[in-house]
Amino acid sequence: MIAKHVPMKSVRKSDFAGLVKYLIDEQQKRERVTGVSVTNCHAERPDAAILEVLNTQAQNRRAESDKTYHLIVSFRAGEQPDAATLQAIEWRICEGLGYGEHQRVSTVHQDTDNLHLHIAINKIHPTRYTIHDPYRDHKTLGELCEKLESEYGLQRDNHQAQKRGAENRADDMERHAGIESLLGWIRRECLEQIQGAQSWAELHQALRDNGLEIRERGNGLVIADAAGTMVKASSVARELSLAKLEARFGRFEPSPERLANQADQPTRQYQPRPFRMRVDTVELYARYRAEQQGHGAARTVEWTQARDRKSRLIEAAKRSGRLKRAAIKLMGGPGLSRKALYALTSRTLKDELNQIHQQYRKERQAIHDKYRRQAWADWLRRKATEGDSEALAALRAREAALGLQGNTIAGNGGQQKGQGVEAQQDGVTKKGTLIYRVGASAIRDDGDKLQVSRGATPDGLEAALRMAMARYGDRITVKGSAEFKESIAHAAATADLPITFDDAALEQRRQTLLNEITAKENRHDASARTDRGRADRGRIRHPGPNATHPTGAGRRVGSAAAPRATRKPNVGRVGRQPPPEAQNRLRSLSQLGLVRIASGSEVLLPGHVPDHLEHPGAQPDDGLRRGLARPGVAAVAGRAGPAPASSALAAVDKYIAEREEKRLAIFDIPKHRRYNENDSGAAIYAGSRQIDGHSLALLKRGEEVIVLPINEATARRMQRLALGDPVTVTQGSIKMPGRSR
């Protein structure tokens, strides 16, 4: 576990609101933000907490430093602490830094190779309005991480500072951008040659041979290349500091020939190129350079077009204003009326100009984002997301790409095309790991292994196994904890997947579970056949008094009389005729049903009325009936099982689409949208619905209605609520007010 403070380079750019909005922005990814919490604020929603923090920061007018503290807590690849552990770690770290009473917003991100926690802290105390800057926070964070790793059984990291700031920045550039830094290039290519110099002249010559130059700057020395990129000499090696070099060679002697005026070309020189990878990236890097160089010209063209369009709109608005004033002048009339019309025209023109300028700012920002300069690794990730297989291979060939760790599923059949399940790609990490969404689960693929990173439910594990079958064949290798292997064996046996595990013990466990499930199903089928046999024997008619019965000695006429109940007249078999209340219905009436809305006009009923009514009637019990084993009756397929859980979100989207379509025609229908993680808090119960076999709860907040899928138990409990009752939503679960005695 690593905890790192991210300082702002410029205090003027510090913005708590902008930081929180970035942290909670899902960026069209479901796996980016998986948890949001607000601490020490009256509000529970991040947008309301932002206002509280900004008001608190405004109370301190003396502080000139940054009032926001941005902290990142990152975990090792493969580690997935639960929500309670993450909350405890967040509290312990903030308490250790002295921010236990300070307002903060925390988010959990899982869209990278390492699960990480972002904490945006208000450095201004909420009651004293004083600013708090922790002393030597890097040392405090290292000590806290060591304790937390030991207490929670996390993998240990090195928390002893061994590099200076420039070295850390160079390492960050190489790791995140994928481009070799000048400092790293000097260390790898020519440091030994530089250290072997025995005089100032030899040192200058060694540097010139590599396209470098050493100069005085401030109180020390810097090493620069031909492009002007500089690094501190002491950051390259401690032996190259000004004091140590002067102790060896005497007073500093500048180079007699500047690098820019050097006639001979150096034997080699630094170029910002990608690291050497296991695959050839020459063509990819050429495409990257060409695209980045072409962005400047394309951005200028589009900005010019947007500016010209703005000028035309402004001129048209002003022309319209002049025509209106001329018309008012020709109208004549009382002076007071003309004055009011002139004022209205001026206000209208001002509003139009403001709207034009606002639209231009949006267009300019969109153009800037479209042609934003990207680092090499970010460009590779974007291309891989768009489906470029070469870019994906380059990401996976990076030195930092070590593959998935922890609970993984792999195979020996080699990578094949195909997924085996309906999976939607959610994103690509900088190490080339593809993230797929399958229902409520997230499956990661690094090219060699699969991992269920979130939502390791039986359905998610089954989806991962089916994906592994499609990619690696029917022989599967499972690595991880004993609990994970047991869950995998259960999922494989329950779904009756035609696979074989490499682990002999795991394969034996799968077969044992499969035999138990098969035996249980056989017992159930035998019991069902016995019950059907009893029912069939109970439906045999009793013969009349003159019926003949075969016996062992032949037939005998005139047997004993049948029971009295069998001789009742006009008695048919059960189910032939409907009960009295079900007779003479208007089911076949050729007329469309209409429903009356008090505040609107008459509209056609939806396709399935009970699913859209506030209080639907009793549901059909066909799913509880056994199939009829008699001639002339065909079983109705598909009635016995519930709808799959993976279609719950589809039911939500279907209902929202239906309501939004009606909202276009009926003005008093509020906007409906899907529930997300940021909707935790108080809401008003607005009813429940049944769509495609799924229960949906309608929660009103402000002018919107939030649609949340719920299970059957919650749906039964919510039947006791009345419209308008307050409820509380916490991470998708609904808490209802208790009953008073």
UniProtKB/TrEMBL annotation:
Domain Large polyvalent protein-associated: 424-512
Pfam families reported for this sequence: LPD7 (PF18821), Relaxase (PF03432), TraI-like_C (PF22287), TraI_middle (PF22863)
Organism per entry: Accumulibacter regalis
InterPro entries: Endonuclease_MobA/VirD2, LPD7, TraI-like_C, TraI/MobA_relaxases, TraI_M
Region (Disordered): 518-583, 607-626
Bias kind Basic and acidic residues: ranges: 518-538
Domain MobA/VirD2-like nuclease: 22-154
The protein's name: Uncharacterized protein
Residues annotated as domain TraI-like C-terminal: 651-735
The keyword DNA damage belongs to this UniProt entry's keyword annotation: no
Superkingdom, taxonomy of origin: Bacteria
